[in-house]
């Protein structure tokens, strides 16, 4: 099968609106180069955090890699991420266990936990202070109340996932927030997503990778040598394998409809506002709609949520002022404050899946084509997972957990 001109290879979207807390004047993306003049082992379509993590991992294994993006790397959805790296999913473990059984649900969570732990150690080994360790607080809400959170904590502990339950009074005393029962989990951290993306791409380029942008790949043509990638303006090059790391600009020819799009909203307080609670904890709610909160390295409070099941840019942008106000009010209530001022607000396209887990694996309808779609609430953690699974697959080594994240796992639901 070829990706013909009648249907674009990937969607083209305005992925974010507003002002993000990462200073755009400090962004130092790698300089663009030319399309490869020789065959490469792997072409990665997408130069965001997913593509960067993949490029770093795959070049470290000695592969020749070309990264292609239609915009400057890291400036799409990556720049809109609040970059809380957690191993807990949007679908609680107790709820996933009801669907899959406890053993299978825990298997998926434990693999994400392990991938996130390994990625954190990798960032530490790179240096440059790329990550900030902090615990995660998961507060009782309308999705999971105190008793349900106790059951969630027990299930975490039974499978070696580091969480413990605290009562409302214990949570308020330890973390200086409004009293609410919750889980405290460790093994989580935060990053500056754009800075980390660029650092990983620089490492890949140092090993001989190439990067070209803005370049739009219009079609993929299978051949005996792999896949020919054809640009919108008629140029082409060959790759033995292609990885679709196009984020929330879906490759609809290959990614099943179960992986859907929505919109999310966020605000950031001025620098120096934090800390207003203890231990630099990341906080989120077992609620729908939820609120999540963290502090950045420069003392901003970053809060977001209020997702809507609409990915239309005009609708998203129209709702941004009102959603920002709701998030600010919820934030103040969570922290037990009368008011918290904010100076930046943004909206972004976001992806979800029925089980809160990503799409990682071989595309069924084209040989040598792979999908790395971090849909769900943990996109950067899922990128670390995708790098492990696809690295093994490309080396034809079995990964015992690969089927858990197969893009076509919902076909019989």
TrEMBL record:
Gene3D superfamilies named in the record: D-Amino Acid Oxidase, subunit A, domain 2, FAD/NAD(P)-binding domain
GO terms under cellular component: cytoplasm
UniProt KW ATP-binding keyword: no
Alphabetical keyword list: Oxidoreductase
One MF term in the entry's GO annotations: oxidoreductase activity
Domain FAD dependent oxidoreductase: residue ranges: 41-390
A Pfam family assignment: DAO
Entry-linked InterPro entries: FAD-dep_OxRdtase (IPR006076), FAD/NAD-bd_sf (IPR036188)
PANTHER family: PUTATIBE OXIDOREDUCTASE (PTHR13847:SF201), SARCOSINE DEHYDROGENASE-RELATED (PTHR13847)
Protein name from the UniProt record: FAD-dependent oxidoreductase
Organism: Novosphingobium pentaromativorans
């Amino acid at each position: 099968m070829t990706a013909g001109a009648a249907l674009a290879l990937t969607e083209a979207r305005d992925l974010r609106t507003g002002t993000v807390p990462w200073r755009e004047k400090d962004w130092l993306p790698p300089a663009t180069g030319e399309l490869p003049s020789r065959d490469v082992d792997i072409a990665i379509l997408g130069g965001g955090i997913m593509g960067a993590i993949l490029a770093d991992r795959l070049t470290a294994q000695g592969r020749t890699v070309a990264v292609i993006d239609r915009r400057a790397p890291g400036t799409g959805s990556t720049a809109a991420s609040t970059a809380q790296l957690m191993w807990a999913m949007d679908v609680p473990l107790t709820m996933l266990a009801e669907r899959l059984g406890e053993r299978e649900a825990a298997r998926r969570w434990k693999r994400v936990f392990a991938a996130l732990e390994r990625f954190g150690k990798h960032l530490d080994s790179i240096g440059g202070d790329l990550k900030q360790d902090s615990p995660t607080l998961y507060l009782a809400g309308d999705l999971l109340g105190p008793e349900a959170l106790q059951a969630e904590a027990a299930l975490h502990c039974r499978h070696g996932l580091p969480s413990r339950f605290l009562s409302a009074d214990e949570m308020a005393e330890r973390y200086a927030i409004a009293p609410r029962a919750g889980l405290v989990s460790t093994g989580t951290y935060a990053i500056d997503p754009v800075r980390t993306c660029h650092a990983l791409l620089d490492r890949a380029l140092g090993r001989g990778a190439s990067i070209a942008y803005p370049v739009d790949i219009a079609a993929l043509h299978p051949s005996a040598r792999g896949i020919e990638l054809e640009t919108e303006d008629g140029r082409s090059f060959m790759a033995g394998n292609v990885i679709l790391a196009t984020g929330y600009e879906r490759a609809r020819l290959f990614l099943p409809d179960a992986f859907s799009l929505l919109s999310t909203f966020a605000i950031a307080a001025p620098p120096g506002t934090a800390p207003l609670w203890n231990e630099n904890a990341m906080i989120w709610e077992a609620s729908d709609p939820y609120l999540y909160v963290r502090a950045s390295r420069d003392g901003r409070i970053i809060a977001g949520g209020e997702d809507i099941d609409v990915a239309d840019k005009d609708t998203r942008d129209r709702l941004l002022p009102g959603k920002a106000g709701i998030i600010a009010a919820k934030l103040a209530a969570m922290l037990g404050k009368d008011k918290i001022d904010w100076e930046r607000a943004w909206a972004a396209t976001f992806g979800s899946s029925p089980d809160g887990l990503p799409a990682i694996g071989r595309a069924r309808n084209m040989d040598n084509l792979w999908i790395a779609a971090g849909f769900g609430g943990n996109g950067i953690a899922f990128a670390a997972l995708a790098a492990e699974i696809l690295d093994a697959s490309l080396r034809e080594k079995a990964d015992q957990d690969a089927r858990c994240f197969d893009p076509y796992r919902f076909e019989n639901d």
